[in-house]
Amino acid sequence: MISRIDLRGDALPEGPALRALLPRADFDVAAALDKVRPICEDVHHRGDAALIEYAKKFDGVRLEQVRVPAAALAEALQGLDPDVRAALEESIRRARAVHRAQRRAPHTTQVVPGGSVTEKWVPVERVGLYAPGGRSVYPSSVIMNAVPAQEAGVASMALASPPQADFEGLPHPTILAACALLGIDEVYAVGGAQAVAMFAYGTESCAPANMVTGPGNIWVAAAKRYFTGRIGIDTEAGPTEIAVLADDTADPVHVASDLISQAEHDPLAAAVLVTDSTELADAVAKELVPQVAATKHVEDRIAPALAGRQSAIVLVDGLEEGLRVVDAYGAEHLEIQTRDAAAVADRVKNAGAIFVGPWAPVSLGDYCAGSNHVLPTGGCACHSSGLSVQSFLRGIHIVDYTREALADVAHHVVTLAEAEDLPAHGAAVKARFAEGEQNWHSGWKVPGQ
Questions:
Q1: Residue 449: is its pLDDT beyond 80?
Q2: What percent of the chain clears pLDDT 70, i.e. is strictly above it?
Q3: What percent of the chain clears pLDDT 90, i.e. is strictly above it?
Q4: Three-state DSSP class for residue 293
Q5: By the 8 A CB rule, do 172 and 199 touch?
Q6: What is the DSSP letter of 228?
Q7: Which residues lie below 8 Å from residue 389, measured CB to CB, with a gap of 6+?
Q8: How far apart, in whole angstroms, are the C-alpha atoms of residue 431 and residue 13?
Q9: Catalytic residue among 99, 297, 333, 373
């Protein structure tokens, strides 16, 4: 059901050589670019008409318009199961508590008397949010994208989610209800690369956005790459992944259930156990069999995900080697189920989110921990972060110098400008002062200095 990779005995290689030994799904965004490019440019030239045509082609629905009527949002919220509503509201409350604390205040540094640099934080003006459809419905992704944007102060946001044939061409009603709970009234029944193109270029119905965030399939990821530079993006999200670093204190029932929990997303989902305990490895492999048999989505998702090249039990000599392996892997979700789990978690360098001990499963983070579940995949945790308030903010430096403060450093500016063979840079400083006496610093100095 799941393969093994034995890295015991020999010294682990460094860097790319170690990463090459670890399981990873095939997810070739570059190859998908050629297919999304014409779709994106078609949306650019034909706007809503192209979106309506692609809804029929890809989603099997006939649309009269792409924007979801306000009445449909209100109806979806009214019809929402009370227990689901309570769960969504609690998820929103906890996410707000965590993300509100991420807000950044302006900070001024007094560099010299009369000279200061202030960094202020300004939210992106308009954001397009994407909530995937298809195999599952993800109202939690609506929350994870919208809450940090709202807490950052984004003034305008719109959400796109694929139209569903089962719901008369509207996005899934639970998606619409989540939008209503969050106060998002601009919603579009658009999916895939065409949704990203709609936000990037704008159409008759939808104004262009400055940024697009939210997970999706390979076509969404490819469209994000295509528009990088024109719009901001969060990340090119690939198939979801979980890595568990565990020792002989871990409960194999817990570990197996957590591996399955991510495998049920997609046949390309990755489930990786890194352990120095052969007894745990054997117990987890054994435990997977009855747990998989007892759950849903086995044939189309879980079984191929666990059997795929992206999933494995990785055996290592000890905790130190295990830490090296999980840092090389850079998991989207990393669980630590070891002795002194908090101390071990503190040593991890590369992970999208870390879940400490037996009572913090990834499922908690997916919904109600308060953390964000839009996280880097495919090893990108070695250089990227998950979605946060900071994702929607831009830092702007404000430079404020008096005449005296500029005069004090003018000769250094002129010297560096001349060293870079950019004399006009130095001249822009000299122009602010009358010609003065020469000095040994740069052959020029401010009068009276």
A1: no
A2: 96
A3: 91
A4: helix
A5: no
A6: B
A7: 99, 100, 102, 103, 104, 148, 151, 152
A8: 58
A9: 333
First to last CA, the chain: 79
- Cβ density class 181-200: b for 16+ within 10 Å, e for less: bbebebbbbbbbbbbbbbbb
246: β partners: 275, 337
Helix, strand, or coil (residue 339): coil
- For residue 159, give the 3-state DSSP assignment: strand
Radius of gyration of the chain (CA): 26
Core vs surface per residue 303-327: b (16+ CB within 10 A) or e: bbbbebebbbbbbbeebebbbbbbb
- Looking at residue 435, what is its pLDDT? 60
Q: Strand, coil or helix: what is 231?
A: strand
C-beta of residue 433 within 8 angstroms of C-beta of residue 397: no
Residue 305: strand, helix, or coil: helix
Sign of the alpha-carbon torsion through 208, 210, 212, 213: negative
Q: 385-399 as b/e, with b when 16 or more CB fall inside 10 Å?
A: bbbbbbbbbeeeeee
Catalytic residue selected from 186, 241, 264, 332: 332
Closest by CA to 376, choosing from 227, 239, 191, is 239
The stretch 131-141 carries a mean pLDDT of 86
- Can you say whether residue 266 is alpha, beta or left, with left for phi > 0 and alpha for psi between -120 and 50 degrees? beta
Is 333 part of the annotated catalytic residue set?
yes
Supply the DSSP string of 63-117, one letter for each residue: -S-SBPPHHHHHHHHHTS-HHHHHHHHHHHHHHHHHHHTT----EEEEEETTEEE
Taking the CA atoms of 184, 189, 193 and 195 in sequence, report the sign of the dihedral they define. negative
Q: What is the pLDDT of residues 58-111, one digit of tens each?
A: 999 999 999 999 999 999 999 999 999 999 999 999 999 999 999 999 999 999
What is residue 5's three-state secondary structure? strand
- Per-residue HEC secondary structure of 428-448 comes to HHHCCCCCCCCCCCCCCCCCC
Strand pairing class (211-213; 187-189): unpaired
Model confidence band, residue 448 (pLDDT cutoffs 50, 70, 90): low
How would residue 186 be classed by pLDDT, with cut points 50, 70 and 90? very high
